[in-house]
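Q: Here's a chain of 352 amino acids. Please give me its 3D structure as tokens.
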Amino acid sequence: MANKKEIIKTVEKNLKEILRKIPAISVIKAATNVKISSSFLADIKLVISINNKRKIIIVEIKSVGEPRYIRSAVQKLSSDLTKNINAYGVIAAPYISEKTSEICKEANIGYIDLSGNCFLAFDAVYIKKENFKSIISSKKEAKSLFSKKTSRLLRVLLTNPEKLWTQMNLSDEAIVSLGLTNRIIKKLYDMEYVDFDQNRKILFKNPSKFLDLWRENYSYLVNEIKGLYSPLSREEFEDRLTQYISKRSKDRYAFTLFSGAALIAPFVRSKQNFFYYSGNLENLKKEFEIKPVSSGANIIILTPYDEGVYYGIQKVKEKNVVSNIQLYLDLYNYKGRGREQAEYLREKSIKF
């Protein structure tokens, strides 16, 4: 992550370049760490001329771009600028997300980041560059937020979006450590996805937006996948598999992808069987006489990347199906018509 000095230097350079591309604007003066008032120190102050009229741009730098920090910075900057009628405020951070961009726009504050996102709207000037794909961003942060153990917490929250949790209850339900729960809840709080009620219980604020975020950082391919062939029809295989597992206390399974969707919210037809399986695969192959094939597989077995995929299993017609959240995640980035089926499931069953 870039430090504040580096961000200031880069933002000043980029902001000048953006403004100088507009024929009517010239940059008269630029300075950093400028005292605007007894209680207000601006990270960057630009004096520009627009059609021979002066305008001051005040930039507040944040080393992190989480919504909670940006919201606080926006409120402070808006307050500090009330006595500077001819000034326009801009928030700068390593990365501005779609969510934090909305916070700035609502307060009539501009923004710029190190990934190319920029929004300036003052006088006759309107500059907007948005892709919200960070070049510096947070593969590391995403990996941390959506790691195996952390995803157990996320499934619990998304499967029970209206429930209030203590951190102890949540860690017990997700089967993760209290320390990990504490770190992730703090992260989600900074991102404004959770809040706390008067009793300090955790409240999930925006499950829909968070599900959008997770789907962009998830693929069913994180699981180990094997394609096999069985002469049985899809329905026959499902029934026999359910009976087979019921006699084996240590084996676990749950239908997912189009097999799961066919039992919950059918939209796309498929002749293949898709299911998670934790057990002796060789015994399963022998029992059903299923064999590997180079093409034409109709049995797709997913060995789960983490046992958390089984959280919130549903019983439908005596068959195990993963939770609607897991089903949606698996489908969303699946080839072919996976996304269509995912969105139908979301509309009919998840409903946020």
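Q: Can you summarize the key feature?
A: The mean pLDDT is 91.
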